[in-house]
Amino acid sequence: MKWALIGASNIASQWMVDAIRASGDDIVAVVSGDQTRASAFAAKHEIPHAFDNENALEKLGIEAVYISNTNEKHEAAVLRAAAAGQHVLCEKPLATEFQAAVRMAKACDDAGVVMVTNHHLRHNAGHRAMRAQVAAGQLGRLSSVRLSHSVYLPKPIQGWRLTDRAAGGGVVLDIAVHNADSLAFILGEYPTHVCAMTSNTGMASELEDNAMSIWRFASGVTAFTHQGFNTPFAETHLQIHGDAGSLHATGVLSQAPGGVVALSNVDGRTELPLDSDNLYQRVVKNMHAAIAGQPHVNADGWAGVRSLAVAHAVLRSAESGQTVEVTYG
Ligand code: NDP
User: Fold this and answer.
1) Is the CB of 230 inside a 6 Å radius of any atom of ligand 1?
2) Atom nearest to 68 CA in ligand 1
3) Burial class (CB within 10 angstroms; exposed 0-12, middle 13-18, buried 19+) of 301
4) Whose CA is nearest to atom 13 of ligand 1?
5) Candidates 3.90.1570.10, 3.40.50.720, 2.40.30.160, 3.40.50.300; correct CATH number of 2-120?
6) Who's near 261: CB < 8 A, 6+ residues apart?
7) What pLDDT, in 10s, does the model give residues 204-255?
């Protein structure tokens, strides 16, 4: 498949160029808002074409785009790609505005192209193992979840995330969307209500760099979730508790493969076997399956819409001081 990259971003450079090529696909062009940056990115990654606008893609036979510019720019890029009949892999959060995300998913449906939201975490082996344990009833009746996804934002990407709400800055839009998708993948449901508090601990300017919230699900499960940019020494973890067992995972909320998942029950504590598949390569592989009309486990466009709805509910709750209903539209 022939790809164009929309956005000369860090994530494209660090992970997605290799992930796309690993499935045998070609990256034909990169588009940036700045020609010099596009050309430098193309030279670094040996991409034949570099442009400062997407119109230049027209005659290149592009079949799919990977969109990783800042979040307020995703919508225009998705709508253009859908109109051109190109499949879409779009970064999270899909957009800053909820209705923009809805328009994006709908445009791809209407155009008959596959849309994937790059919620990579559900491809971590730990997530897949936990989903299988929950689905097999190993935990009995589920009661609660504790998810700690507080990290330290690495220096090279301490830009718009800390300063620019219009670009989708703040820890909630950046990380809570991932947590919503992870829990939806593992539990098979999205929260109905959210109660949240956020704070600025001095790392971000006028945006939240720390957020804690409690999510309630229709099944009765409650989840405590912690998102942070500001904890250099924290470890991430995810625990799922039921009346017949608990799952304890560490290191499964990460870009790199790895982590440990253990099941505790009346028989004691058993570590589950995990593979070390590259998460982003699995996204691209599953996108190929989706394009071929085969079953796949990617987050589609509507999954990206729903994860954004949860993040917006977290922000609304924190702002209002009230428990709020998540509005999925
Ligand atoms: P970057 O800040 O690296 O890139 C975003 C945009 O910023 C680029 O597309 C580029 O615009 C512009 N930019 C990059 N470098 C410079 C520079 N030196 N000077 C001026 N502008 C620059 O963002 P990330 O890679 O961190 O994130 C991009 C997207 O990917 C976001 O949507 C983010 O939420 C998502 N993301 C997803 C992850 C995942 O695991 N799914 C992980 C990390 C990010 P232009 O294209 O115009 O050149």
Assistant:
1) no
2) 29
3) buried
4) 9
5) 3.40.50.720
6) 126, 129, 130, 247, 248, 249, 252, 271, 272, 274
7) 998 999 999 999 999 999 999 999 999 999 999 999 999 999 999 999 999 9
